[in-house]
């Protein structure tokens, strides 16, 4: 569990990428579920030397860096990115805290952790405020989903809007349970490189 901040521990996006120079983002995947409004995410930049692509999720006004070799889509409510084997999956969306029935980011993190535990027996959730005011929720013992070979570890990062405490961004990263430590380091990279237009 992270203490005061997330730390990539020396890993970079190259540790999670394949050297395809961004070709994966031009390939659609008909097997990924999505509504009729789902489209491929716009690639803003390829930084092959860093092993990453910067994706523009226009509907939620977020630029997210992800490893090369991944794929990404968006719909009017969220952006989704995933590794080629779909073992690593990221979802990003905007959160309206009053709409969710909470007073702000901290209340949202605590409420979400408690709700998941009450609705998913066996799942353990811990929420922690990081030094920069963001909130990390770690979910242990998440059951495997369809197509998964093992249970999951899920990380939520709640980023409050510094100018409006009523809204924020939620970044959810799910990884195989056996990759939990690497997954937390990837979340550190995602957090370090996210660009949000508030």
Short description:
This protein has 198 residues and is mostly beta strands. It is built from 2 helices and 12 strands; from the N terminus they run βββββββαββββαβ.
Overall CATH class: Alpha Beta
Q: How many structural units, i.e. domains?
A: 1
CATH architecture: 3-Layer(aba) Sandwich
Q: What distance lies between the first and last C-alpha atoms, to the nearest angstrom?
A: 29 Å
Specify the structural class: mainly beta
Determine Rg (CA atoms, Å). Answer: 16 Å
Strand order of the largest sheet: 1-5-6-7-11-10-9-8
SSE order? EEEEEEEHEEEEHE
Question: Tally the helices: what do you get?
Answer: 2
Keywords for this entry:
2 helices; Protein Transport Mog1p, Chain A; eight-stranded antiparallel sheet; single chain; 198 residues; mainly beta; four-stranded antiparallel sheet
Description:
It is a single chain. This protein is mainly beta. The chain has one domain: Protein Transport Mog1p, Chain A (3-Layer(aba) Sandwich), CATH 3.40.1000.10. Helix content is 15%, strand content 38%. It has 2 helices and 12 strands, in the order E-E-E-E-E-E-E-H-E-E-E-E-H-E. The strands form 2 sheets. Strands 1-5-6-7-11-10-9-8 form an 8-stranded antiparallel beta sheet, with helices on both faces. A 4-stranded antiparallel beta sheet has the order 2-3-4-12. The longest helix has 15 residues. The two termini are 29 Å apart. The model has no long low-confidence stretch (mean pLDDT 90).
């Amino acid at each position: 569990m992270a203490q005061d901040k997330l730390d990539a521990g020396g890993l970079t996006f190259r540790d999670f990428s394949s050297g395809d120079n961004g070709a994966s983002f031009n390939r659609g995947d008909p097997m990924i579920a999505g509504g009729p409004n789902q489209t491929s995410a716009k690639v803003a930049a390829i930084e092959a030397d860093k092993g990453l692509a910067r994706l523009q999720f226009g509907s939620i006004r977020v630029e997210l860096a992800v490893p090369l070799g991944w794929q990404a889509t968006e719909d009017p409510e969220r952006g989704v990115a995933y590794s080629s084997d779909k073992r690593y999956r990221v979802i990003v969306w905007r959160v309206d805290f009053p709409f969710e029935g909470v007073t702000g980011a901290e209340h949202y993190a605590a409420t979400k952790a408690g709700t998941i535990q009450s609705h998913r027996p066996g799942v353990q959730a811990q929420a922690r405020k990081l030094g920069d005011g963001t909130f990390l929720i770690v979910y242990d013992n998440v059951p495997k989903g369809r197509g998964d070979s093992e249970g999951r570890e899920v990380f939520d990062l709640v980023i409050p809007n510094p100018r409006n405490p009523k809204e924020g961004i939620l970044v959810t990263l799910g990884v195989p349970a056996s990759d939990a430590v690497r997954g937390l380091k990837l979340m550190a990279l995602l957090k370090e490189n996210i660009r949000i237009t508030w």
